[in-house]
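Hi R.,

Here's the chain you asked about this morning:
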Amino acid sequence: MGRSQETFGKKDNEKKRAKKKTEKEERKAERQANAKSGAALEEMFAYVDENGNITSTPPDPTKKRVIKDEEIQISVRKQEDREPEDTLRTGTVSFFNTSKGYGFIRDSQTQESIFVHANGLGGITIGENDKVTFEVEMGPKGPNAVRVRMAGATPPPAPAAPAAE
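And here is the predicted structure, written out as tokens:
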């Protein structure tokens, strides 16, 4: 007769598989023994107390408050509720690359550096260390300076509204 094809590695792997299977069956039996399938409905309830914490005890009926639907606010405040910020700022041009058309203005109040693009200049030419006034708008990558004017220069007149017919 020929020799058995079973090797030590195969026997070892088979023992490991059998051990895993028995451990799995033991864990299953333990879960079934500890399961609360017959628990009362009241034991499964969870309550929220007056501070918003989850608890297993029901709330005290004497602490009950009535809240009107109109008092509940789910969203952020409306834009008109906020105080308007000072939109016109002053600053100094800290860097401007005329060939690429962008630079940075250092705000005189907050000392933060604000990006400025040639499109926000309105046709004027600025250079480093020029004093300017500008407005800030949020761009896709952060605050951008727009409607930039030289400090002390008069603002251009607003475009006339078309006449109603």
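One quick note: The longest strand covers residues 88-97.

Cheers,
M.
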